[in-house]
Amino acid sequence: MAKLIGSAPNQISTNGDLGSMAFEDRTNYITKGASVHQPFRNIIINGDMSIAQRGTSETGITSGGYLTVDRQSFVIVNQGTFTMSQETDVPSGQGFTKSLKFNCTTADASPTGTDRLYLSNRFEGQNLQYLKKGTSNAESLTLSFWVKSNKTGTYIAELFDNDNTRQISQTYTINSSNTWEKKTLTYEGDTSGALDNDNNNSLELNLWFGGGSTFTGGTLNTSWNANVNNKRASGVVNLADSTSNEWYITGVQLEAGTTASDFEFLPHDVNLQRCYRYCYRINGNSSDQQQCGAIGFANGGSTFNAMMRFSPDMRTAPTVTEDNMSQTTTGSAISLTGTFDNSDTSDCNAAGLSFSADSGTPFTVGNVMFPRVNTSTSAFIQFDAEL
Amino acid sequence: MINTVEKIYTENNKFCFKVTDTNNKIKFVPNNEANSDYQAIQEWIAEGGVVIDNPPSE
Question: Whole-angstrom Cα distance, residue A190 to residue A224?
Fold first, then answer.
């Protein structure tokens, strides 16, 4: 019968009956209190910037939104003009293949008032309940990321609680021009203000790189408090002060706890599926047509009804945009700008939608139709349920 | 930036919003409060925007 007689630190006897002591190294065993790398610990979706369904570059940006890399919302209000692009410039030897770049193309050296520039990641409250925000057991959060810019100086990384209008900011410094640097910031847990358990925007990570006095006029708020706008981004650089300025980022990870674990690389398909909850886009190409998974029938002289199912379910009923669609039977281009049945949860919801379209081309009533994206690199249909 | 918003009616008096932005890009927005484009329309209305509304005759 085995005797458990090992007592050396980090060791345990594996067979006490052997006559000689046999020890097993437990250094890499999970022990109580040790850091455990939980799967899906990264609250950020697409933090490696690898998915860009909408396109890899957008120029002339003066108003913000989700423009290139998935889940990355650019907030720009009256502060210069930027190009936003997915790039292959990445920190060496870290496993990343893509980064997100902001390049100032028209300068604004003197931001005022409510002018602002930041990159925003937004999260559903139902995915954050394990943070126990608003309780005495609230979890700390640790943010880590790689960043590079010619513009050295102080930048701001803010967490903003939309449900309770509370926020906390931390500074980080880009020390060396045009050099990839890894930054790690820890935010205390917030014992006030529980996050709603729903599919709405409860929490934002805002990475500031410019702002007017409305957001910079006070003293930076580095503890969770009720929001005061002028304490959100005090001391931040102005990335818009020169057309020479550019700012890269990748490997963004936000996780519970006070230490940063290694970046959690997900398989491409898993990462893409996570992005589909917020944006599902079918792009055309120059060689063949792309079916969008919808099927329908002609119900009138020039109109047809079609329906499609989302997988996975989207966050909510999506906004729809399209360009250069057709249907298989005749190949004639249709436009969705006439009638589009996107009107309530019975016809359009997070699970799918039905729509009608008017081609202007006579159809044979009852014919089966397969809406598709045409053979063109500019053709697409997009379903958008972003936060 | 929103330029115009028009209600597009379908059967049973249901509707979505046809939104045209200042770059003449068009999007169709569901009548759903959780949709962020719907929320943007409400902000646009609060700032004085007027929705084009021509419901079908009964």
Answer: 6
**What is the DSSP annotation of A274-290?**
HHHTTEEEEE--SSS-E
Cis, peptide link before residue A9, omega less than 30° from 0: no
* A62 CA: distance to closest CA in chain B (Å): 10
Mutate which of B32, B33, B42 to test chain A, going by most A C-beta atoms within 10 A?
Answer: B32
Task: Enumerate the domain spans of chain A.
Answer: 1-36, 57-276, 279-384
Q: Which of B11, B18, B35 sits opposite A317 (nearest CB)?
A: B35
B42 touches chain A (CB under 8 A): no
DSSP run (H or E) holding A121: strand A116-124
Higher pLDDT among residues A363 and A333, named by residue: A363
| CB-CB under 8 Å, A341 with B29 | no
Of A308 and A115, the structure prediction assigns the larger pLDDT to A115
Residue B36 contacts A where some CB pair is shorter than 8 Å? yes
pLDDT digits (tens, 9 = 90+) for A273-329: 999 999 999 998 888 888 888 888 877 766 777 788 999 999 999 998 888 776 655
Q: How far is A8 from chain B (nearest CA, A)?
A: 58
ipTM, 2 decimals? 0.93
Residue A68: which region, alpha, beta or left (left: phi > 0; alpha: psi -120 to 50)? alpha
> How close does chain A come to B48, measured CA to CA in Å?
20
Q: How far apart are CA A314 and CA A147, in angstroms?
A: 31
Contact A386 B15 (CB under 8 A): no
pLDDT of A329: 57
Give me the pLDDT at residue B12, please: 72
Contact B29 A337 (CB under 8 A): no
Neighbours of A378 (CB within 10 A): 10
- Please name the CATH architecture into which domain A57-276 falls: Sandwich (2.60)
Contact A342 B30 (CB under 8 A): yes
Instruction: Determine phi and psi for A224, rounding to 5 degrees.
Output: -60, 125
- The Cα A318–Cα A315 span in angstroms is 8
pLDDT digits (tens, 9 = 90+) for A2-25: 444 455 555 555 555 555 555 555
Task: Select the residue of B11, B28, B32 nearest A316 (Cβ to Cβ).
Answer: B32
Residues recorded for chain B = 58
Strand pairing partners for B28? Answer: A320, B18
